[in-house]
Amino acid sequence: MRPLVAVMALLLMGVVLFGNNDRINAQSKEEGIAEGIYIESLYIGGMSEEEANVALEEYVAELAGKEFTLEAGDKQLTFTAGQMGLEVLNDNIIQNALDVGKTGSLLKRYKDLADLEHGDLVLELRLGVNRDAITALINDNLKKINTKAVDNGLIRENGTFTYVPGTTGIEVNVTASTALIEEYICTEWNREDATVLLSAEITEPKGSREELAKVKDLLGSYNTNFRTSSAARITNINVATDRINGTVLYPGEEFSVNETIQPRDAAHGYKEAGSYEGGQTVQSYGGGVCQVSTTLYNAVILAELGVTERQSHSMTVAYVPLSMDAAIAGDYLDFKFVNNTETPIYIEGYTKGKDLYFNIYGEETRPANREISFETVVLETMDPGTQFVASEDPMGSVIRTQSKHIGYKTQLWKIEKVDGVEKNRELFNKSSYRSSPKILKVGIATDNEALRSSVYSAIATGDAATIYDALYWTHPEAAAAVLN
Question: Do 318 and 198 lie in a common domain?
């Protein structure tokens, strides 16, 4: 019975197909697109191939104008789909539309046309983007998005701390973000303006109001005087101090004076002033900043923070005791320390009159009956004496071109007292200071050849008494200057 039913069904289908054969053949010969066909929301039914291509180009052009907002944290970039290289991937879609009801077996063509009579046919438009174009757009605009986190901080004014909120750090992963945008447009895009979240690492600012509220106690304080400094040196001290002032250092963080006060050049407010270089005094931009690092060093060691890098000057400085200085030079000498406490610390630096001050604030956890101090011990003293140089200045002139610097080898000891009684003494640092002679230029220019030769020979001995004797009878004041 079932075979008979199947045969009857085939015969009936044949009758239907035969009856509609003229209609199918007629539509197959038409050049246009069958009625009822869409490409997405674009109706192309009844259009010619040329008309459909124009309509599709206009539709894609409209899509190219849609805007994509790319977000990372609180930062945004906006580009059109066209800027990202929007393109049609199935460029044969018009031909596919033309083929509906015109290609394949008679049965297939009949089925295609029958389906259109019962409902519309919507063809899928597959879209893509240019990966290189997206990558270039993001890279060209990274500066607008990528930001370093600024930790929550403090400002101390008129003896009062004020909380300063920080900002979030953002770093975009360009490769991953490009892939996300491409996938979204190819698989999820609803053909309207859209927002895409970029792949980015978000860094929250350190510190909270509660944590920073603990910063209230003075842990260490020190000041030095710069009354003999030149105007340029004073400027450099003020510039460097301003850059350090207000720093909040969180537990475990290291502070570098050199990195903080760089770059040291005219464009950033520094002037040329005297500084040590290779055992000599030279003029350099930022001359005087070593007094800033040295003053801070002493506040830091009194606060008992962890010193991680410190070097003494090549020669002695006058504003602190031996072994209590911290030199800064180029990129090779730095003063660094770490916050070894469990709460943030605040560095306050300022000048008042001709005095430089640094204060370290934090949470005091040390016993009130405990005090520390530092003591310098000199192990060796090296007196370089005076160096005499013959010059073509007039006979009788004595000009000092360099002051004497005594050389030392020293130690700094940390002393701990409890209730005024010494409990511990430990070696804190060792320092060596190069000696540098006083240099006197002694003039030998004269028409008296005998005197010239006598004084020149005396200078060659390097002995002050011999030079004194050679000058005394003709230039007693110069002779006295040699001995002073």
Answer: no
- Single-letter amino acid code for the residue at 229: S
238 and 349 housed in the same domain: yes
Q: Do 355 and 223 reside in the same domain of the chain? A: yes
DSSP 132-154: HHHHHHHHHTHHHH-B--B--EE
Question: 143 near 172, Cβ under 8 Å?
Answer: no
**Alpha carbons 467 and 457: distance in angstroms, whole number:** 9
- DSSP codes of every residue in 373-421: EEEEEEEEEE---EEEEEEEEETT-EEEEE--B-EEEEEEEEEEEETTE
Q: Where are the beta strands (DSSP E) in 301-369?
A: 306-309, 336-338, 345-352, 355-362
- Residues whose CB is less than 8 angstroms from the CB of residue 449 and which lie 6 or more positions away in sequence, other chains included: none
Establish whether the linkage from the previous residue to 263 is cis, with ω within 30° of 0.
Answer: yes
Strand partners, 351: 356
Per-residue tens of pLDDT for the chain, all 484 residues = 445 444 444 444 444 444 445 444 444 445 799 999 999 999 999 999 999 999 999 999 999 999 999 999 999 999 999 999 999 999 999 999 999 878 766 666 656 666 676 568 999 999 999 999 999 999 999 999 999 999 999 999 999 999 999 999 999 999 999 999 999 999 999 999 999 999 999 999 999 999 999 999 999 999 999 999 999 999 999 999 999 999 999 999 999 999 999 998 889 889 877 666 555 555 565 678 999 999 999 999 999 999 999 999 989 999 999 999 999 988 889 999 999 999 999 999 999 999 999 999 999 999 999 999 999 999 999 999 999 999 999 999 999 998 899 999 999 999 999 999 999 999 999 999 999 899 999 999 999 999 999 999 999 999 999 999 999 999 999 999 999 8
Q: Are residues 271 and 344 in the same domain?
A: yes
Domain interval for residue 357? 214-365
Query: Is residue 279 in some structural domain?
Result: yes
CA 175 to chain CA mean position, Å: 22
183 with 296, same domain: the answer is no
Q: Where are the extended beta strands (E) located within 26-104?
A: 37-39, 42-43, 67-72, 75-80, 87-88
CA distance 340 to 11: 95
Instruction: Look at residue 182 and tell me if it is in a domain.
Output: yes
171 and 235 both lie in a single domain: no
User: At residue 380, what is the residue type?
Assistant: E
